Amino acid sequence: MENQIQMLKQFCFSNGYCISRVFSDIESGISFEKRKNFFKMLDDVIAGKVERVIISYKDRLSRVGFELFFKKYNCEIIVMSEVGCEKLDSEEIFEEIEVYFSVIL
């Protein structure tokens, strides 16, 4: 988890993004019931306090409805692994089940 957060911070610094808050959970990307920090972040998005969310991999937020949570509230999602790299969605399906959820705002 710490390595992922450090990589995200470095990505932000390299791209000129200011970090105001870090949210992280270690839970399944399929179930939301134990993802307390995800819901704290979502509350901030809904309240209009978040302009941009930066994640390491697409499935770190959710395995389904990836952008559904954020489009409505004009919150940009940047996926670090997809910057300068194209990855097929079919490849992501077979990646690890456990999600290390880290978000940089």
TrEMBL record:
Going by the entry's taxonomy, the superkingdom of the source organism is recorded as: Bacteria
**What GO molecular function annotation could you give as one example from this UniProt entry?**
DNA strand exchange activity
Q: Where is the Resolvase/invertase-type recombinase catalytic domain?
A: 1-105
Cited InterPro entries: Resolv_N, Resolvase-like_N_sf, SSR_resolvase
SMART domains referenced in this protein's UniProt entry, alphabetically: Resolvase
Which keywords fit this entry according to its UniProt record?
DNA recombination, DNA-binding
The keyword DNA-binding is assigned to this record: yes
Instruction: Give any Pfam family that matches.
Output: Resolvase
Protein name per its UniProtKB record? Resolvase domain-containing protein
Q: Which organism is it from?
A: Alkalithermobacter thermoalcaliphilus JW-YL-7 = DSM 7308
